[in-house]
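Encode chain A's predicted structure.
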Amino acid sequence: MIKLNNQIIYLILLRHGESQWNLENRFTGWTDIDLTENGEEEAKNAGILIRESNINLDFVYVSRLKRAIKTSRICLNQLKKVNVETFCDWRLNERHYGSLQGLNKTETAKKYGASKVHAWRRSYDISPPKIDEKDKRHPKLDIMYRDIDPAKLPNGESLKDTLKRVKPLWLGEIFTQIKKHKNLMIVAHGNSLRSIVKMLKNINDKEIIKLN
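Encoded structure for chain A:
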């Protein structure tokens, strides 16, 4: 809840349900992986909780990745709000894990060392190894992002980089709707949502890495 001019506005931050690569303990990032059956059930339960809270949503913002989109649709179905206006935006995508995407996290720690992988995963301003621009996994080569300036598409990001990507959307569009007293739901990912919480609550760089 956000109190603005003595009026309560609801902002729901919803992480997508369990994906297949979550289950397999792999770095997912921008890889477009679907939900597991358990992930679908998690999305359904989230919708039930929101419905029971009697929150009337005005808009939904969601990343371009199918695990977030599917979570949003399943959740909204429980609210009987399938026609609520929804905006898909690539800037809400998960942090890009560079060349680590697709790798098993445990095996990666054995290869590079647990401390280095921990720094890649949990530090604020250390990014993982970059993915080569010719690699077929690079977003520049993905038809899903053909409408985006290639110079803006990441090849590996720290949390700081992710926040820099999310910030213009947050300040330019989402927070504008909040100031208009609109109730919003953002369906995204651990690091893009962490970026929003950092800005919303003014959490410092040291403390934000502890937030799950």
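The chain has a mean pLDDT of 94.
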